[in-house]
Amino acid sequence: MTRHHPDSLTLMEYSAGNLTEPHALCIRLHLDKCPHCQSRVDTLDSLGAVMMENQPKADVSESMFDSILARIDSDSDENEVMARVSVKTSPLQKLLGDDLNSLPWKRQLGDVSVLDISERFPGQHEQVVLQKLAAGGKAPIHTHKGEETTIVLQGAFADQKGVFNQWDFVVLNEQDEHKPVAVGCEDCITLSVLSAPVKLTGTFTRLLNPFIR
User: Fold this and answer.
1) Which range in 76-85, 149-158, 167-176 is most confidently predicted, on average pLDDT?
2) Pairwise CA distance, residues 36 & 33, whole Å
3) Per the record, a Pfam family (predicted)?
């Protein structure tokens, strides 16, 4: 079960079609495995359709959306939603195939391997990268020069904010400094969308920042 979800504003932007293709992919992957968020998006889609039809110029506050979503959280049948989303073909399979471990990974630093797939999203300015952290391995301590949106595709990792399991969703920015550790018995693979490169902050690894894209 997923425990870390996109916030209400992000789901609203997804429903409205305002997210870039890479960010929308991260949301879609989460929704395919999270009936809780899928039910919220279904409601936003329906609400948006009614607003467009009847009140195209209405000024609806975010607090109103939060109120609606809170009510949906208590009323929705998540088993029904899960049954509906589970039959969908994953966009990840269409993009990368079935075996993430067999991709042409490139060792970056220590226990971390990467695969940049930005070219698969032509016209986008963000960097889209797969990252693999070896089972039991640690990533160098770092922060971010911009915003990083990440979804866990396989395994799990832990940092000072908690444990992030498969299909969990997390957004980090320049105020966050962390050192992810892969937990469990398998490699942790994530998909990240970065508006700017990461910034290594370790005593020695910071010397490598000029070489980090």
Assistant:
1) 149-158
2) 9
3) Cupin_7
* pLDDT attached to residue 92: 82
**pLDDT confidence bin for 63, thresholds 50/70/90:** low
All domains in the chain, ordered by first residue: 8-91 (no CATH), 99-211 (2.60.120.10)
Task: Round to the nearest angstrom and report the end-to-end CA distance of the chain.
Answer: 33
- In percent, how much of the chain has pLDDT > 70? 75
Ramachandran bin of 156, using left for φ above 0, alpha for ψ from -120 to 50, beta for the remaining angles: beta
DSSP, res 138: B
For residues 159-187, give the mean pLDDT: 91
Residue 52 phi, psi dihedral angles, 5° rounding: -65, -35
Q: What is the DSSP letter of 210?
A: G
Residue pair 172/150 in contact (Cβ under 8 Å)? The answer is yes
Place of tokens 């916030």: 7
**Dist CA 199 CA 208 (whole Å):** 9
Give the torsion through C-alpha atoms of 78, 182, 192, 28, to 10 deg. -10
In one-letter notation, the amino acid at residue 74 is S
Q: Which residue has the tokens 């940092």?
A: 159
